[in-house]
Amino acid sequence: xxxxxxxxxxxxxxxxxxxxxxxxxxxxxxxxxxxxxxxxxxxxxxxxxxxxxxxxxxxxxxxxxxxxxxxxxxxxxxxxxxxxxxxxxxxxxxxxxxxxxxxxxxxxxxxxxxxxxxxxxxxxxxxxxxxxxxxxxxxxxxxxxxxxxxxxxxxxxxxxxxxxxxxxxxxxxxxxxxxxxxxxxxxxxxxxxxxxxxxxxxxxxxxxxxxxxxxxxxxxxxxxxxxxxxxxxxxxxxxxxxxxxxxxxxxxxxxxxxxxxxxxxxxxxxxxxxxxxxxxxxxxxxxxxxxxxxxxxxxxxxxxxxxxxxxxxxxxxxxxxxxxxxxxxxxxxxxxxxxxxxxxxxxxxxxxxxxxxxxxxxxxxxxxxxxxxxxxxxxxxxxxxxxxxxxxxxxxxxxxxxxxxxxxxxxxxxxxxxxxxxxxxxxxxxxxxxxxxxxxxxxxxxxxxxxxxxxxxxxxxxxxxxxxxxxxxxxxxxxxxxxxxxxxxxxxxxxxxxxxxxxxxxxxxxxxxxx
Length: 515
Hints:
The chain is mainly beta. The chain has three domains: 20-120, Immunoglobulin-like, CATH 2.60.40.10; 128-305, no CATH class; 312-515, no CATH class. 6% of the residues lie in helices and 46% in strands. A hairpin with a 5-residue loop joins β27 (343-347) and β28 (353-357). The radius of gyration is 33 Å and the shape is extended. The N and C termini lie far apart (86 Å). Mean pLDDT is 86; it is low at 1-27.
C-alpha cells in the first residue's frame, strides 16, 4: 500500500510551532513558564492566522497576577491570512512573588487564543515606606560613603590593569536623629516592622530653609545654588515637620529654581519650610537607639540609596601631561605613609634564606587628607572623585612633604635647578615616583616640570635638568612648596566624605603611587 501526503486545511509547519498561538481549529492554550524573574525580561511571541481570511483582534482581557506584565499589541489589530503578528511580552522583576497571568484575545476567529504566563520573583521589600522627615543631629557631622567596585590586577613588576565594575558609586549616609513624643512612636513603628522596608529620607547635607514662598498650585521650588543631588527624575520634598510634607519629582533644574512634576497642594512659607532632595533607602544594617528618657531616643541609621541619581559638577580639572591633577593640595598633618617592596622569601630549610625582590623600588602609599570649605570647592572635589571611578583612573598628586631644597636661586628662563644633595643621581634617577616636581612660590605661582637628567656637581650639590624653562625666578626663600609630583590612583573603592556642616567637608583619600 502506497501512502501519500495529504495537506490539511489551515495546518502548516508554522501553525504547529508551540511558540505561537493559532487561529485554527487546532488551537491550544499557550503556557510560558518564566521561571525565576530576577531582572526585567522581554521576549517576542507570534499570533499566527492560519485561516484563509483576515482576522481582527478587538481586545485583550487580562486576569490573574498581571502586575508587571505587559503586551505591546495595540487593538484593534488585523492579521492577514496566513501571516503572523509579532507581540513583545515584557515581564518586570517587581510584582507578586508568585504570578500566573491569563491573557485572552477577543477575535473574529472561531477559536480565541489564550496565553498563560507564570513564574516567580525574588522576595521584594515591603511597599510600605517610612518617611524620615526628622531633623538630623549635626553634633558629629554627617558621613557619606561612596562605594565603587574595581578589579585591580597587579603583575609581578607592579604594573597594573584595572577594570571598572560599577559606573556609579553606591551611596550611604549615616543619619542620627533625636526624636521624642508622637514622632518617636511613629519612627519605632517604621523601624520595628516584621519585614524589611524602604525608608524615604532627605539628603541632609542639601537640606535648606526655603528662600522664597511656594504658593498652592506652583510647579517650581526656589533655590539659591545647585547641588549634585538635584537630578531630573529624582524626588524632592518640602516639609515643616515629620507629619507635614509634599514630595515631588524633579523635571527641570535651573539656576534659581527646580521644576517639579505636579503642582503643590498647599502654601509653603519661606524661612519656615524646609526643602531637600530625597532618596528611597534601605536600612538593612543594625539600627541603634539610645534612650535618654521613656519618651526620648537617639537613633542612628545607615541608609543606602536605592534609586540614586548623582551628577556632581565643578570647575574644569587641570591637566598635566594629559592626566588630571588633584584640584586641591593635601594637608601634611596626620599623614601615614608606607613603603612596600614586592618580594618573596625562599626558605630551603638549611638555615640559609634567599630573597626574590620583584619590584625594583618601593611602592609608596599614604593617606591624603583634605579640608574643603564652601560648596563650590566641595562640588569640584566630588566631580573629581566621580571621574576617578574608585581605583580605576590615575591622577597627579603632590607629595605632602618637602622632597628637596633649592641650593642656589634660579633665574626666570632657566631650564635647570640646583638642589641640596639627596643622592638623587644614585638612588632616585629614573624612578617613576621621582621624575616630576611641583614648586609653589610665595605669590602663588605653580610650576610643574619633569626631570630629564641629573648631574652631581663637584660641591656635592645636584643639578636637575628640566623639560621646560622656569616662568619666574625661584629661590629657597621664595618657595612655599618643593614637592615631588606623583602619579597615583585611589587604593580603596570606598571613600567617606565627612560633612562637618553643609558648607564644610573633610575627605581622606588612601592613595598608592603608580610605578
